[in-house]
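Support request, priority: normal
Reporter: lab tech (M.K.)
Component: structure prediction queue

Hi team, I submitted a job for Alanine--tRNA ligase from Digitaria exilis yesterday, and the status page still shows it as pending. I've pasted the exact input below so you can check whether something in the sequence is tripping the parser. The sequence length should be 1007 residues. Please let me know if I need to resubmit or if it's stuck on your end.
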Amino acid sequence: MEVAAAVSLTSRPIPLLSTTPAHRLHLLPPRSVSGRRLRPSHRHQGCGCVRDGLGERHSARKNGFLVTSSSSASVEPATQEVATVVPGEWSGDAIRRRFLEFYAARGHTILPSSSLVPDDPTVLLTIAGMLQFKPIFLGKVHLMNRALFILKFLCCHLQEPRRVPCVTTSQKCIRTNDIENVGRTARHQTFFEMLGNFSFGDYFKKEATAWAWELATKEYGQFLYSAWSMISLLFSLSLFRYGLPAERLWISVFEDDNEAFDIWHNEVAVYNLYTFLPHRLPFYEYRSADLGDDSRFIEFYNLVFMQYNKKDDGSLEPLKQKNIDTGMGLERMARILQKVPNNYETDLIFPIIEKAASLALVSYAKADDAMKTNLKIIGDHMRAVVYLISDGVLPSNIGRGYVVRRLIRRVVRTGRLIGIRGVSNGNSEVAFLPSLAEVVISLSTQIDPDVESRRKSIIGELQREELRFVQTLGRGEKLLDELLDEALLSAGNNGNKPSLSGKDVFLLYDTYGFPVEITAEIAGERGVTVDMEGFDIEMENQRKQSQAAHNVVKLSVGNETEIVKSIPDTEFLGYESLAATAVVKGLLVNGNPVNEVSEGSEVEILLDRTPFYAESGGQVGDNGFLYVNGGEDSKQTAVIEINDVQKSLGNIFVHKGTIKQGSLEVGKEIDASVDAKLRQGAKAHHTATHLLQSALKSVVGSETSQAGSLVAFDRLRFDFNFHRPLSEGELLKIESLVNQWIGNATHLETKVMALQDAKDAGAIAMFGEKYGEEVRVVEVPGVSLELCGGTHVSNTAEIRGFKIISEQGIASGIRRIDAVAGDAFIDYVCARDNYVRRLCSSLKVKAEDVNGRVETILEELRATRNEVSALRSKIAVLKAASLASKAITIEPENVRIVVEKMGDVDADGLKSAAEYLIGTLQDPAAVILGSSPGDGKVSLVAAFSPAVVKMGLQAGKFVGGIAKLCGGGGGGKPNFAQAGGRKPENLPDALEKARAEIVAAVASSSS
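Reply from support: The job had stalled in the queue. We restarted it manually and it finished. Here are the results:
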């Protein structure tokens, strides 16, 4: 009877609230469904499975709460009525605090929200409250390496031992799959908070349902004793109350979960129950003859009961550890308790909307539906972008960065559509996003106190991104309008539906920064579809050209079940040793588990312990060898070369390599040996990276922060947030500081401490990185203090030296420094020294005189080029003198016209020739000259005398038109203009056309 469907199948409370204009809850007479089970509409399909590695592994039971509300006059307010909520009584912060305190009082430990950047390669962003606990649900009981948290739990619960703690959280979440509905419905958001309580093998259905009901009906439904209510009591009338009346709540229960149904009905004593099928889950809306229209209900609380493992043959077996995963939408509960018609008008979002309305010079209360929708979009998206940037996600054209860029640009475009502009500052426009971000930040203190400390970075990034987009927006919109016009015209001619090609959409995306969704929105407004398949092809082609494949170890759901569940985290020994004995715990070939691999095979090896560092924190994985020794003679029976080490789910190290000799089996004992020279290179570059960041902050300001890094054996790459290129002087200062600290031969100190203690001590944390309760801190005393799990030198003198190779921009607001240290620094300096020696020999000067000699040579070269150009112009004028005699005269105005090709004369020579001819010929005169100076180029020039210009002819328009025949363009003033092209083979035809057009134009102007 039990069904394995999804990680979300649970006891699913679904509070729903109507959008009645009166903003008041009215109670319907309770509907008992005892003895019958209501079925939801069959239009709700496919909601049962979660594709994040959990859905096919765990069966869960889902129940739901529904709150009914009146949307008609057929209510009985005389006997059932709800008092109006006192303003501010149930603020969003108060609702969040009450939830967390409620479960804390019942043995749960309150954990902070995890980052919006999940520690899970299968998920782009944090989309649910349970995501940070995914390893626990998969049977990896290490609670995200939070050793300190587990110790706290054990101390608090010695009298009632539990295998794993119970926790409660308020989790920041991002979902953009329904972005087109944001602002258009009452409940869709990209950013939201999910309140949750979780049990890992402790309590189960009975406690979860009882507590959920108590929370909904008592904690959020207290009696309000006013003077009027006391008088009512004296007259035996009902008390006024507010919150969630029990008779207004409906509970949905998974159809085959009789246990949960009985608990709700018999123990919790709930009668408003209905059941649903696993493939017909009433998530956000529910429509049926029995329960009425969608607007009558709002889902607010889900209880997920995980109790079965679905095997490959489809059969179910009970899990050894039954888990609870719940989620209550904070914004939805705020909507209910604050009695507003939608999530956006709660105190969690509405202050942002009010600010946007003031910038648009409108009143939200008086605005029409279209204006309100746009304001809601702005309010929602601003929350999302502020929290994403705070968690280290910066705008870019790939991955998470693209999500941020898309949301920011959607806000900017939406704002401009309703008239929002930044305050003018002289001739420039100041961004308006920062003023909206200030409101978001002011609302953030309870959910994420770190947002306030990152205010400057958030505001700066939003301002730069908005202004960059505004600069290209006009050009892009103009191009898009032209493309849409062409699509509509083409469709009209051939009778097809108008469509924008994938290439055009990609051009807008890649060149003008238009997110494809915005292009699709604008196109849709004009009835034009978008070729998404073609766009995807263009994107894939770009990825292949510009990006190397990124190595990510992914274990499929099946492999997680068979391997990860049975293998403990890998013990890392590499801080103290480069060699160790270990046991092979698993082997993978092409992602599939095997028991043995033979010579020549590419293999991934899982060990119980290892000295190999796995790629993380920017540092590459170690290289080295694994050996299998056999017999008393200790001869090597197998040799495996390791060329990379990655981390898989949890903290399992995956050693990737090739069997060079012999074979390897699961269970074998091996000797692991790390390449010491390569490790030393990585250590030198990692410590140098820390020194570089400190020097950078010292030279350009502490507001800059790390945006990414690569620590390789032979180089380092450091990406940082900054709005301009660094000067040569700044780079020299940074380099000098780092080398000074290296020369000081300072011993490094490494400590493990509580995260908060590390932050209090001033340790630098990587923006957006996730850390456990205990962290490793690497300190160069007096210079650098950072949270870091990488390998480092023991003394800065081991770095030997540091040299910056380059500094460049890699994305808007992101700069990159490439540098070398250690042996790579010595190799680089020696190579440069050899180069300088050869240069000195060629120039016949000393090293210190090379720069002066080069400047002299360059100056001589410039002078020579100027002389050559002057000579060419003189030659062109001499050639032009002979062309004057070839002028034709057009009557009756006697306009003298010269249209000729001048061989390989360059643009400057062509200009001189045209100036000579227009000065030599009597007014009125017109001169059009063309040439092919080489390299596949075409030069064109047109010169018209004053009398010709008075006839209405313009040199700029004329030469620009004929340049198109040569694959180019150009323009200029009415009397003189230049153009160019890339098709010299078309030049004769272009000049012939020019001759015909100028003659016809002169003749027609005289008639």
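The chain has a mean pLDDT of 78. The first strand starts at residue 12 and ends at 13. Let us know if anything else looks off. Ticket resolved.
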